[in-house]
Design brief:
Blueprint: E1 3-11, E2 15-18, H1 30-40, E3 43-49, H2 50-60, H3 70-80, E4 83-87, E5 101-104, H4 109-118, E6 122-126, H5 128-136, E7 142-148, E8 155-157, E9 167-174, E10 180-186
Parallel strand pairs: 1-6, 1-7, 3-4, 3-6, 4-5
Antiparallel strand pairs: 2-8, 7-10, 9-10
Helix pairs in contact: 1-3
């Protein structure tokens, strides 16, 4: 049986993307990327929406040539080894670019519980929209936030409205560029 985790890079005012949908400001430094690399090593399944899947498709085809940074090559290898559940009512199976990906048109909480129960490691639910119902329902056992010292004033919130969470800080780290890594678990 797996566990459910949620990770997000967020602005200081709590957004994963700004009002224009831009999230380029979330790009990690080498030190932050190393934490993502360690974190992803425990993930066996990713549950993600159509837009997040499209954004991560880069890693599905990462060239990883000898001139590429070793950390990036390793992240690509790890990403390709993860099972993916893509949530979309508009995609078709031929739009999936991995033999480790499957499509579900809707993600009910019961379906998510089945995914977690059948996993051998960490199931990461990736993307605020896809994760919203699970967060509200209290299904997420680990929250990993990378807080960027920037405010964007609006956009896609990292946590959904209506979520009431009582969390304990179990790990934290501050990077030279001011990004704070915060790992929380429910009380």
């Amino acid at each position: 049986m797996g566990t459910l985790s949620y990770a997000a890079t967020v602005s200081l005012d709590g957004y994963a993307a700004d009002a224009d949908g831009d999230f380029q400001w979330t790009g990690p430094s080498d030190a932050v990327f190393a934490v993502h690399l360690d974190r992803i090593a425990t993930v066996t399944t990713e549950v993600l929406g159509r837009k997040t899947y499209a954004g991560m498709d880069y890693w599905e085809n990462y060239p990883g040539d000898a001139d590429s940074p070793e950390a990036a090559r390793e992240f690509g290898r790890r990403w390709r080894g993860i099972d993916k559940v893509v949530v979309s009512s508009t995609m078709t199976p031929d739009e999936l670019h991995s033999d480790r990906a499957r499509l579900v048109s809707e993600l009910s909480l019961d379906e998510l519980r089945r995914i977690v129960d059948s996993a051998t490691g960490v199931v990461e639910i990736f993307g605020p929209t896809t994760a919203a119902a699970a967060i509200r329902a209290g299904l997420v056992g680990d929250f990993h936030f990378f807080v960027v010292p920037k405010t964007v004033g609006g956009g896609l919130r990292a946590l959904p409205d209506g979520a009431r969470l009582d969390l304990d800080l179990v790990e934290h780290r501050i990077f030279d560029n001011g990004i704070a890594y915060l790992h929380y678990q429910p009380r």
